[in-house]
Design goal:
Helix content of chain A: 55-70%
Number of strands of chain A: 3
Structural class of chain A: mainly alpha
Oligomer: homodimer
Strand content of chain A: 5-15%
Largest sheet of chain A: 3 strands, antiparallel
CATH topology of one domain in chain A: Arc Repressor Mutant, subunit A
Shape of chain A: globular
CATH class of one domain in chain A: Mainly Alpha
Order of helices and strands of chain A: HHEHHEEHH
Chain lengths: 163, 163
Amino acid sequence: MAGTAQYEELVRQFSAFGAVKREMNRIMPADCPSGSASVLTLLGRYGDLRMSRVAELLSVDLSVTSRHVAHLAERGWIERSPDPADKRSRILRLTPAGRIRLDELFRRTTRLLAERLGDWSDEEVGHLAQLMARLRDSFGECRTVPRPAPPPPEQTTRTPAST
Amino acid sequence: MAGTAQYEELVRQFSAFGAVKREMNRIMPADCPSGSASVLTLLGRYGDLRMSRVAELLSVDLSVTSRHVAHLAERGWIERSPDPADKRSRILRLTPAGRIRLDELFRRTTRLLAERLGDWSDEEVGHLAQLMARLRDSFGECRTVPRPAPPPPEQTTRTPAST
DNA sequence: TATTGTTATACTCTATAACTATA
DNA sequence: TATAGTTATAGAGTATAACAATA
């Protein structure tokens, strides 16, 4: 249990993080802003997903997901197929063009991080990622959905649709 | 120097951080959204500041700062006095009402963090704050200076003046 | 001519609410 | 009645560009 002075410092760092995020956004191509990119990333990692699952993983409203997904589908980067098990649902899947796009985005972000974090040790990067993951868990528990349902850390390139 | 797999994981965590930020924003009072609050926080920490200095510390454009500052000044939380040394500048200062407001905001954020991070150790909180501070430094170094794209070294003729 | 700050405009992300179609 | 998804609307944050005043 930490003291208020530490919390204050943490809040300051949270606020300062905005600058990092903006710089990440700036390197995104105009036709694939960060919101859409995050959906693409999720599909690349977890395989086929339903809209509602994407919204849950991103911790955003379903309406937000819907917009980003429509954006991606218009450009042919993802495909929305009806779910045979539930006709209300739609299954999202990366297309080959989407995977190419995703790889390209990945190269951009990796290059930027390599530039900026060139003097960070492997351990430091891992530690930051780990603490931020825990932070998200600590915040997510009460907000997202009753079940965080941690996805298996498998190879995820071709995970078959759950269900 | 970390590998691309670690960078990929870090990018994912950066994206997930949005959920934390949104929850922090949600607890802000309607008349003092996060953008304005960050200006207030800066003044509480550093004392009197010039507009341009605030913009620099927040890593946002001066026009953005101008809007947030106007918002705060309208509500009597800060005061803009002319800088006697440079009549173009304005010095920002927290008013007593502004300090009260700031304390109240501080209580809100502290309470939220105490709820969410109740099971974090003092050391973990400190470590996260430290790593995020370093992250900001790593990103900030190349950005604070407002010319990412160096203009042509020549300046004898003014090409863009066409109309 | 360069810098400080203001304002107008536009774009992205987000949530809420109303709506359709399924369950 | 409840859930999955779409769409319209509104609010916040930000950047760019044009502008005013001063250095």
